[in-house]
Amino acid sequence: MSQPQGGSEGTEIPLSNGASWASVTPDHQHQSVLPTPLSGSASSNRAMHNFAPVNTPPPPPNFRSASQIGITSPPLGFSTSSAAFSEIPVLHSDPPVLMNGVPSQHDGSLALSSDDSTNWSAASSFVLFTAHAVLKEKKAFNIPSLGFGAIVCPGREVVPIPPSIRRSPCRCQNCGAFSNLYCSIAPSTGQWKCPFCDKMNSSSGTYKAASKENLENWPELVTSVVDYVEVSSGRPGFVPVSETILAAPLMVLIDENLDDAHLQHLQSSLHGLLDSLPLSTRIGLITYGRTVSLYDFSQTGVAAADVFPGNSLPNKELQKTLLYGTGVYLAPLHVCISVAHSIVSSLRPYRGDLVEDARYRCMGTAVEIALSLIQGPSMEMPRSMVKKSGGCSRVLVCVGGPNTLGQGSVPHSQSHPSYMYLEKKAIKQMEHLGQEARRQDAVVDILCAGTCPVRVPVVQPLAAASGGVFILHDDFGESFGLNLQRAAKRTSGFRGIFEARSSDCFSATHVIGPGKAATSSAHETARNDKSVCMEVPTFEECQSFVMSFELNKDIKGDNVYFQFIAQYTNPYLMNVTRVVTVRLATTNSLVSYVRSIDDEVAAVLIGKRTVAFAKTASDALDMRASIDERTKQIAIKLGKPLNKSKLRCFPSELPKLGEILFHLRRGPLLGNIVGHEDERVVLRNLFLQASFDLSLRMLSPRVLMHREGGTFEELPAYDLAMQSNAAIVLDHGTDIFIWMGSDLSADETHSAAALAACRTLVEELTDQRFPAPRVLTFKEGTSQARYLQSRLIPAHKDPPYEQEARFPQLRSLNPDQRARLKSKFFHVDDLSFCEWMRSLKLVPAEPH
User: What region holds the Sec23/Sec24 helical domain (predicted)?
Assistant: First the structure.
């Protein structure tokens, strides 16, 4: 969708140590917890690096969506290529103990053992580190080109759920850390020693026990992930309430300026949304154009609405009439579903003579009215007296063009003499409206479609400030409908705080995540609490936070510690505090450190750090150059020189890193694959908040070739995969393409079977992924085939020996097939991966 240039995805917020935050708008989300985690989903495999053949239809365990997969990391000593998600076990081993109140020799500072690996597996469902070991020497460890950090997904769904603790946590009075399995405990007195600051703390008798075996009764002392739940009732159990009471309102706002073709697709998507929602959902329907129409569900057999002017907000008298009148504007779906369907069917296309971008749209006014309706009579009461329904209310805005009337509006033409001034004013108004929605615990999701520019820089702050998403679509069809349904159904942990602390030898240099630096009132600190804290509008399934660390002094101990905390309110209005504690081993060996690096996690961290600075087209060009320099520096620091040559070898321990960085350099985030800069702005914003798996896919596309019998083979993302007798699926995170070779397409029977298998695979890959990707199917030689080829590395330019080394599947082709494959490619100016590495005077690492 073509958009005008502008907008940004984040700002830099300074940390106390002179480093900075990258605060970005929230798009990818997590679901809320009942009673403590976000409703469970099956554990699943991390992105499968060695893709095994799959029968058609592919079995669900092998193909999970990014929203289900979340983030994970294998235990130390296990190959990342076979790493799978681990359930969260309770470790039945002895916690470190203080003998007679004095630390024993066994103080918890041990190298990673099998038991420690078990706890690392539990934490790795929520936290991924770029390396599983840490160099002790500051100078050797702080490598700016590579960096060290963590990707944290605190609201990820896991099965089984983390242990739930219904009491107040024990916290260190010195540094504020939560008690954890790495603490030293004195059973006779209940005192515990904090591993972060080595200070003794009283547990007020909580950990006083007859023997160390009895300490296993406290989950926080035997597992690395726990949830503390504050139950508002004095009863030990949960208070039963009906779904109707807990159901938060859902308002759907519809652009009434659509042409006939777009309206038909939108109506189909809206009917699908109504049919997919639980019948207990409280829903409201609003259309906006020159006026705002608020539909009344009390009228049957006719679509009746109260109409308000779009150029100004209703006065207090009109608002009282709206709230206390006879109209029913919010109703449970089981009461009004037939009326809602009839309202959607009654929508009519635009009949005026204005072009699309000049039509009157009062979106800001419509959102303001929707928020007033959600707040209801409580708008006249103090916030502390308001009894709120469960979870976040949601406002889904269907947009087909720019906001040109009322609050947050801009002139339809950018040549207007006061356009720049009016745009800045509109951005502030939209941001203020989003902040007001956040104060009401309402999330505004904006879903745009069509070819008309919507002025992304103006509209996006509304979604960003409220904690919602902003998504562009080609049309109002299937992809739009899926995103509409998934946006409406996801639940959130709201009023969130994200907190992170580490051993005092580390300093946090950057934080990238969907929030802003917390105020002192929101962050209750201990005397020497040096943790990083963010206010987060919502915790949802597909969010992630990226933290970068560096050593501020040499490490003397054998272990370092990290703790990540997510505090939020779940849909049952219970305050949840999720605590994840991780211990990493230290080493003096550079070789051991490099071997412990997870090159995919490192690539995602580098990618997010780089994209956070690419706020304009010129910035993106600068970041592409920085990728070149970063790659050279990694080879200089960690690689080896080639014998009798000026070339330098890229580290063999990082076989995937160089290629992923090359994809980042030429892909849609920094390159020119996507047509308009505003589309790249939206993609960057999504990427900066995406979970690890979706981020990795947006960086580096995944190619799967269909084989006989309905199986699929994963291949490198090279254009050599475009073989005329095969079908391939390319997954690039927000886009998925099915490409049918010309020879295969000529055989109708085999072509139909291959296409059906590919579509089944795509359904498994995208199940519950949010936002749902655009899926395109096309044949070889068509104009749309360029979408796929532009995302593949032009390896046809490499010599045959390099092609076979990096694309072994070529060896299965006979000479005639290889000649035909070579003849189909034309000369292009784009460099192949090997050519790019040679231009940097580097030798690429051999693929594993």
Answer: 598-696
CA distance 383 to 568: 18
The answer to whether the peptide bond before residue 771 is cis (omega within 30 degrees of 0) is: yes
Q: Look at residue 120 in the predicted model and tell me its pLDDT.
A: 62
Task: Give dist(CA 560, CA 586) in Å, integer.
Answer: 7
Q: How far apart are CA 506 and CA 410, in angstroms?
A: 47
Q: What is the enclosing helix (H) or strand (E) of 638?
A: helix 617-638
Tell me if 512 sits within 8 A of 161, measured CB to CB.
no
Give the whole-angstrom CA distance, residue 426 versus residue 410.
Answer: 7
pLDDT, tens digit, 9 for 90 and up, residues 519-578: 754 455 566 788 899 988 888 888 899 999 999 999 999 999 999 999 998 877 889 999
Q: Smallest Cα–Cα separation from 771: which of 662, 697, 666?
A: 697
Question: Which residue is listed with tokens 């051991």?
Answer: 592
Amino acid sitting at position 461:
P
Alpha carbon distances (Å) from 786 to 298, 558, 578, 663: 52, 53, 46, 16
Q: Note the pLDDT of residue 124.
A: 85
- Kindly state the DSSP code that residue 597 receives in the 8-state scheme: B
3-state SS of the chain: helix, strand, coil percent to 5? 35, 20, 45
pTM score, whole prediction: 0.82
Beta bridge partners of 253: 286, 397
Q: Are the CB atoms for 369 and 397 separated by under 8 Å?
A: no
pLDDT of 397-430, one tens digit each? 999 999 999 999 999 888 899 999 999 999 999 9
- Angle, helices 599-611 vs 692-699, to 10°: value is 80
Buried/exposed code over 646-665 (b: 16+ C-beta within 10 A; e: otherwise): ebbbbbebbebbbbbbbbbb
Between the two ends of the chain, the Cα-to-Cα distance in Å is: 39
Closest CA to 805 of 846, 834, 835: 846
Question: How many Cα atoms within 13 Å fall on the side-chain side of residue 789?
Answer: 21
Q: Please give the single-letter amino acid code of residue 337.
A: I
Name the DSSP class of 249. Answer: P
Report CA-CA distances (Å) from 477 to 268, 449, 738: 8, 9, 18
CB 208 within 8 A of CB 199: no
Q: Is the dihedral of CA 404, 406, 410, 416 positive or negative?
A: positive
Sheet containing 727-731, strands listed edge to edge, beginning at the edge strand earlier in sequence? 712-715, 702-706, 727-731, 735-740, 774-779
In terms of Cα–Cα distance, which of 85, 78, 80, 73 is closest to 114?
78
Task: Name residue, tokens 């240099």.
Answer: 509
Asked if residue 701 lies in contact with residue 773, where contact means CB atoms within 8 angstroms, the answer is no
Angle at 422 between CA 420 and CA 427, to 5 degrees: 95
Task: Go through the chain and tell me how many residues it has.
Answer: 848
Q: Which of 439, 512, 434, 425 is nearest to 469 (CA)?
A: 434
Q: Is-cis flag, bond preceding 169, omega within 30?
A: no
Residues 6+ apart with CB under 8 A from 682: 3, 456, 460, 470, 471, 472
Q: Residue 540 corresponds to which tokens in the numbers above?
A: 């949802």
